[in-house]
Amino acid sequence: MKTFYIETFGCQMNVHDSEKVIGTLMAEGYSQVATPESADLVLYNTCSIRDKAEQKVFSRLQQFKKDHGAGKVFGVLGCVAQQEGHRVFEKAPHVGLVCGSASYNSLPQMLVQLESGARRVTGLSLETEDTFETPFARRDNPHRAYLTIIEGCDKACAYCVVPMTRGPERSRTSDSVIREAHSLAEAGYTEIQLLGQNVNSYRDPSPAGWDFAALLGAMGKVPGIRRVRFTTSHPRDFGKEIIDAMDENPVLCNHVHLPVQSGSTRVLDRMQRLYTRDEYMRRIEWMKRSPRNIAITTDIIVGFPGETDEDFEATMNLLDECGYDSVFSFKYSQRPNTPALRYEDHVPEPVKSARLTALQEKQRTIQIKQNAAAVGTVQEALVEGFNKATGQWIGRTSQNKTLNFIRPREGGESLIGRYLDVQVTRSGPNSLVGESVN
Ligand code: 5AD
Ligand code: SF4
Fold first, then answer.
1. 378-436 architecture in CATH?
2. From 9, 12, 13, 49, mutation site for ligand 1 pocket: most ligand atoms within 8 A of C-beta
């Protein structure tokens, strides 16, 4: 029996790619094992969004350098593979496979080449119309399924490697997306998370020609699916019709992740984000005016080249204006082949660190306030687990918040996968606590 081990770094797109890669390998007769030591084929599905993420894979490969002689094949998949290409072989000569996400359809052929003794095999072309569709995806979570609707990215944000690592935008046909949603429902999934680097620019390539809002409308009607989420949105392509679709359809969850990156229009311009602060705020206002109680989350980069104290202040007061439910914040990290390499006015490391700390502290107080507003409400939670240490069930709300709760008349049966109404009794900066009421 041929065995493989896979470790995944990076975003949900990568996590789902790995689920598809695992299914593809199993269909080729491989079986998955839990440790690299016991595997014939050791795969790393990599991320290169920031320098730290990229370094991780090379440190992993270093650890197992000596195992190459033992007949193991090492493979680097994903964004570092695409970005570094043949340079991976120079940095880690024991690697045998380098394959970017746009080439996963060819994995079966590449495996055959490796099995018949090829020393170095690559899949690095980005000139593709392909999306990686497979009936074999091995999904990890039994209730919530990822579903890719669009791959790649056509934007050119000055800091970002993704257009280079994942290639141009390719949408799947609406027919194939809806078919997959139906088969997920039949397999027992109740929540679907639509994935794409920029879901808002989804365009059905078939004659039906649906846009993203039309797709959302249809997703909301798939029998058995109780929750639909989507990520990630680009503010430039985020139209009012998406909020309208959410207003009309309770299956669409009360949550939008809308990365802003900076609160300063001057910095946004240098980042090539294609919107101003005012244009971004208009989208926030649509959401705040919606009858749905939409949670809003974002991504922010501090210390982008040329960011002044005043620019940073603009980001800080944007936090107050938006009242985010959660923020993912990062120090700017210089990346290969990105447009921002032309900027020389770098922000010193200690300034970046101080800004990140100040931003995170401010956001913490905002979150305490945001979550406190939920105390006293009843929210539906999808039960995802049980915490033995605290005796609490772990649930997730439509707003994508963690809601830990107890069940007063505990029946002893597992609640995992069920939807329960929970009264929120307490709150913290990162989660809610409550008691089930049904
Ligand atoms: N440096 C720091 N953060 C980055 N991101 C993307 N590229 C970089 C970079 N070069 C952040 C953005 C993006 C999130 C996924 O990662 O905020 O939305
Ligand atoms: Fe990392 Fe971006 Fe690639 Fe996702 S798409 S794995 S975040 S570099």
1. Beta Barrel (2.40)
2. 49
Q: Where are the domains of the chain?
A: 3-123, 144-370, 378-436
C-alpha of residue 47 to centroid of ligand 2, in Å: 5
Entry pTM: 0.95
CA of 80 to the centre of ligand 2 (A): 9
Ligand 2 neighbourhood includes 11 CB (under 6 angstroms): yes
pLDDT tens for residues 383-411?
999 999 999 999 999 999 999 999 887 77
Q: Is the CB of 160 within 6 Å of ligand 1?
A: yes
Buried b (16+ CB within 10 A) or exposed e, 380-399: bbbbbeeeeeeebbbbbbbb
Please tell me the number of the ligand nearest to residue 81's CA. 2
Looking at CATH, the fold of the domain delimited by 3-123 is given as: Rossmann fold (3.40.50)
**Is there a contact between 48 and 161 (Cβ–Cβ < 8 Å)?**
yes
Q: Residue 261 and residue 155: Cα distance in Å, rounded?
A: 14
CATH superfamily of the 144-370 domain: tm_1862 like domain (3.80.30.20)
Going by C-alpha positions, the residue among 187, 361, 325 that lies closest to residue 253 is: 325
- 186 CA → ligand 1 middle, Å: 37
pLDDT of residue 67: 66
Q: Is 304 in the pocket of ligand 1 (CB under 6 A)?
A: no
CA-proximal residue: ligand 2, atom 7 (nearest): 11
Which residues share a beta bridge with 230? 194
**What atom in ligand 1 is closest to the CA of residue 328?**
17
432 contacts 424 by C-beta, under 8 angstroms: yes
Question: What are 436's strand-pairing partners?
Answer: 422
Rounded Cα distance between 382 and 143, Å, is: 9
pLDDT in tens, 294-312: 999 999 999 999 999 999 9
Ligand nearest to the CA of 151: 2
